[in-house]
Amino acid sequence: MYIFEAEINNKKVKLYTNYPLKNAAASLLKTLNAVSRKTNIFSPTFALNYGWARYFLSKRTDKSFSYYVVQTADYKNNPMQLRTDDCTDALVVQNMQVDTNMKAKIEKPEPTLFSDTVLVLKEAMNAADVYMNRSEPSKNGDSGWYFGLLNDEKEDQHEPDEMITLPTSELMKFRGEALRVLQMPVGTLAVFHDNEMTALVDKDDKPLEFTTADDRKRAIAAKAAAEAAEKAEENNNSDSGEG
Fold first, then answer.
1. pLDDT at res. 229
2. DSSP secondary-structure letter at 185?
3. Angle at 15 between CA 13 and CA 17, to 5 degrees
4. How far apart are the first and last CA of the chain?
5. Neighbours of 105 (CB within 10 A)
6. pLDDT one-digit tens code per residue, 75-89
7. Which residues contact 180 (CB under 8 A, 6 or more apart)?
8. Does 239 have pLDDT greater than 80?
9. How far is the C-alpha of 166 from the C-alpha of 120, rounded, in Å?
10. With 60 as the cut, is the pLDDT of residue 243 above it?
11. CB 202 within 8 A of CB 187
């Protein structure tokens, strides 16, 4: 477990993740610090919508020492009612969406909350080839996203009972990669094969750049190599010092 800490209004704030999500954690803590100048973030009723996720602060006491833990909704279980100290899922989604927006050069992302709904064709939930398309939201709480079968011959003929409306957090359970496009503008279309995005286009059918699974594998390998080289250099310096 990784612990990130900040001092906000003379109070210790801790944030927990399962991965070293340093940049995402720092961004969230910086935002909490900025918000604290305008509102009491330590109130029991405080909640912050930040990107796709929602965050809270929970007071803890260790002997005579008090501090606050950043909590978020429990997206894998019951995000509407349950909270968790583990911010991993929320920050991973944050990184996914930021990466997609930056790679596609989206200047004004259109936020979507975990509680906003997506219209899903039931048949597509377990299909290999699917797509996501964003239309203008029909009402508050509607993301405008549709999740359907790629090359669906019956696309305009589906009955209402073939569809289901779900909060976008449910995508985590059957197509996690779809979460990365949720802030893309109206008109965006994304294509997926299994859990990998294979195409992304804007409202004018213009292809947009995106980070592929192979890109991410290369980035992870490069980071691991850099960390290994840094560690080897530290060991060499330590050995030299001892001599």
1. 81
2. P
3. 170
4. 36
5. 8
6. 999 999 999 999 999
7. 93, 96, 97, 99, 100, 197
8. no
9. 7
10. no
11. yes
